[in-house]
Amino acid sequence: MLDLDYSLLKDVTLLYVEENKVLQSTFAKQVEKRVAALYLASDGQEGYEKYLEFKPDIIITDINIPKITGLQMAEKIRAVDDNVSIFVTTESNNNEFISELLSLNVCACLVKPIKEKELFSMLVGRGKLIAKQKENIKNTKILQSIIDADTHFLAVTDLETISFANKTFKNFFHIEQIEEFNTKYNSFIDIFLEQDDFIHKGLLKDDEKLIDLMLRTRATKRNVMIFDFAKFVPKSFQFNLIPISRENGKDIYLATFIDISLMTLEKVEMRNKVYYDNLTGIYNRNKIDEVFKDSIARADRYDETFSMILVDIDHFKSFNDTHGHLVGDEVLILLAKTIEKNTRETDTFARWGGEEFVMILPKTSKENAAIVAENLRANVEKIEHKTAGGVTASFGVCQYEKNDTKKNMYEKCDEALYRAKENGRNRVEIS
């Protein structure tokens, strides 16, 4: 007999399905001490039920057994498990079942009576393969455990679908199986919200893929925003794609997501402190100074113009003197919200200081800016404070001219505003 390594069978479980009790008993005596467990069945239905119960590593079945045939049993098992090793036995070596055996991925067909040498040669060879498979499965589980312990999102993708995701990723998207994700989203990039300063689908150029967008985005700007349906808030992530292989003509990437929501929130809060007025909630002087600088640069470079509107609340001192500073603050807030509500998206409105406000209107002549100012004036005139009563404001308008600076534009607007005050207040004057 060949020098076989029987130790390769010590962890193998085996199911033997044979109607003939003598053959079944002989087989059991030869095998049961060599394997981890041996299960016996006398017909195809019993064999299938024992497979479902014990999930053996190897199945050896006769073709002609009662209730359902060995091949019918194998077909039912294959519907559940593509990998289990199945061998069939038959009385004679013929080609009657060859095509069916191939379709069922049967490992081999053994002619009865099975010779002990042939049997153990086959079992040891298969045991070696099973041991390797079990080692791979064990290593995969260990790796999966390590990956699942990672608090960052990890997914393997061809940029359309995903083929792997760690537990953190699955939990965030509330999925058990990968197929759920691929069914829900047409493309991997669809999970990203369309938000300024973040990577999203709307930034893709013609015939461009996500990896192309990533490559033309600075590393520090490769951030994405994804909606967290559990907490019902958007979350921001530092995003990266790492090439790992190529399959079926497609590049495969490891997608990594590092949660930077807290960092982003702190950044937004800091920006709000720098650019927003604490009382009214609108932009402050820092923001308007930045817009001034950009507007002048654009006007000079592209031969454009822009206009400025200066707004001052009429008789504001009397609100403070008569009703107190709290009422004065409420009037400031009411006016700011009224004008902000009626400000065009292209324009920038900010508190300049005290009771003065300023607006920058890109690509707008002073004549058109005056029309905008008149509309704002009319809306301010409708304000009725419960204590202070009616509120009005005066407006000064000017237009950028070549070589103007922020200082002299303010002076031009201030002169127009002064004339509005002198001419009766609650009016618009152009410089």
Task: Using brief descriptors, characterize the structure shown.
single chain; 431 residues; alpha/beta; Rossmann fold; Beta-Lactamase; Alpha-Beta Plaits; 3 domains; 5-stranded parallel β-sheet; 14 helices; 42% helix; rod-shaped
Question: Topology of this structure?
Answer:
Blueprint: E1 13-17, H1 21-31, E2 37-41, H2 44-54, E3 58-62, H3 70-78, E4 85-90, H4 98-103, E5 108-111, H5 116-149, E6 153-157, E7 162-165, H6 167-173, H7 178-184, H8 210-215, E8 223-228, E9 233-247, E10 250-259, H9 261-275, H10 285-302, E11 306-313, H11 316-323, H12 325-341, E12 348-353, E13 356-362, H13 366-380, E14 384-385, E15 389-390, E16 393-399, H14 406-422, E17 428-430
Give structural notes.
This protein has 431 residues and is α/β, with parallel strands linked by helices. 42% of the residues lie in helices and 23% in strands. It has 14 helices and 17 strands. The chain has helices at residues 21-31, 44-54, 70-78, 98-103, 116-149, 167-173, 178-184, 210-215, 261-275, 285-302, 316-323, 325-341, 366-380, 406-422, and strands at 13-17, 37-41, 58-62, 85-90, 108-111, 153-157, 162-165, 223-228, 233-247, 250-259, 306-313, 348-353, 356-362, 384-385, 389-390, 393-399, 428-430. Strand 12 (348-353) and strand 13 (356-362) form a beta hairpin. Helix 2 runs parallel beside helix 3 (70-78). The chain is rod-shaped and about 120 Å long.
